[in-house]
UniProtKB/TrEMBL annotation:
Binding locations of Fe cation: 96, 98, 159
GO MF term (any one): iron ion binding
Cofactor entry: Fe(2+); L-ascorbate
Name of the protein this chain belongs to: Putative PKHD-type hydroxylase
PANTHER family per the UniProt record, alphabetical: PKHD-TYPE HYDROXYLASE YBIX
Pfam family for this entry, one: PKHD_C
Keywords: Dioxygenase, Iron, Metal-binding, Oxidoreductase, Vitamin C
C-alpha cells in the first residue's frame, strides 16, 4: 500500500530545516547500506549522530506523532530516527529492497522495517530526475512530491531513486515498525478507518458507525502485535 501524507511540513518550516541541515556534516551514503545495496548507492547523507540531524529529525518525529493520516496508514509501534540524504550531479540509488532490521544509532534499539517513508525537502522544480520509483502490485509508481510531503510504502517493495541530472534533491528517509506487520491487513484497516471517519461526518454517532468502529478495533486487536 502506497499512501501520500500531504503537507506534513509547511513551506516555511521546510526552508528553516533545510538551512539547519546545511550546517551539518555530510558523508558518503554508502556507509549505511548493506553489501549489495552499497554498490547501487551514490549519494550523500548527513551523519546520523550529527546534532543538526538529531534536531531536525526530532522535529519530524513530533509532526508525525500528530498526523492522523500517517498514524492511520502505518499504525506505528516504533519509528526509526530519520536519515537525511542528498542527490546531485548524476547521483542515484539503483533498485534495492530496504534492510529488514535496522538499528537506531541513538538508542541501539533494533527495529523491524515494515514500512519505508520518504519526506521530500526539495521542491520538484529545484532538480531534474530524482524520482522515487516503487514497484508494487499495481505496477511501477513514480513519485516526485512537493517539499513537505511524504510518501509511505511497504519496505518489501523494490524501489530506486533515478539520477539527478540538474540541481539537488534533499529528503528525509525513515522506517516504521507497525503494530500490524502485514501490508494487506494494514491496507484494509486504513480503508476502514477512512470510511468510518467519512460516515461519522455524515451520520454522527449513528448505530452503524458505532458498530463499524467496534469491528475496526476488534480487527486491530486480532492482528496487532505489541
Amino acid at each position: 500500500m502506497l499512501v501520500n501524507i500531504p503537507d506534513l511540513l509547511s513551506a516555511d518550516v521546510v526552508m528553516q530545516l533545510r538551512k539547519q541541515l546545511g550546517l551539518g556534516q555530510w558523508v558518503d551514503g554508502r556507509g549505511t547500506s548493506g553489501y549489495i545495496a552499497a554498490s547501487q548507492k551514490k549519494n550523500l547523507q548527513l551523519a546520523e549522530t550529527d546534532p543538526q540531524a538529531i534536531s531536525v529529525g526530532n522535529h519530524i518525529l513530533d509532526k508525525l506523532s500528530q498526523n492522523a493520516r500517517f498514524i492511520s496508514a502505518t499504525l506505528p509501534l516504533k519509528i526509526l530516527s530519520p536519515m537525511f540524504n542528498a542527490y546531485a550531479s548524476e547521483q542515484e540509488y539503483g533498485f534495492h529492497i530496504d534492510n529488514a532490521i535496522r538499528v537506531d544509532p541513538h538508542t541501539g534499539e533494533r527495529i523491524r522495517a515494515d514500512i519505508s517513508a520518504t519526506l521530500f525537502l526539495s521542491e520538484p522544480d529545484e532538480y531534474e530526475g530524482g524520482e522515487l520509483i516503487i514497484q508494487d502490485t499495481y505496477g511501477e509508481q513514480r513519485v516526485k512530491m512537493p517539499a513537505g510531503h511524504m510518501v509511505v510504502y511497504p519496505s518489501t517493495s523494490l524501489h530506486r531513486v533515478t539520477p539527478v541530472t540538474r540541481g539537488k534533491r534533499v529528503a528525509a528517509v525513515l522506517w516504521i515498525q507497525s503494530m500490524v506487520c502485514d501490508d494487506a491487513q494494514r491496507a484494509m484497516l486504513f480503508e476502514m478507518d477512512n470510511t468510518i471517519q467519512q460516515l461519522a461526518g455524515e451520520l454522527g454517532e449513528h448505530s452503524s458507525v458505532v458498530s463499524l468502529t467496534g469491528i475496526y478495533h476488534n480487527l486491530v486487536r486480532r492482528w496487532a502485535s505489541v
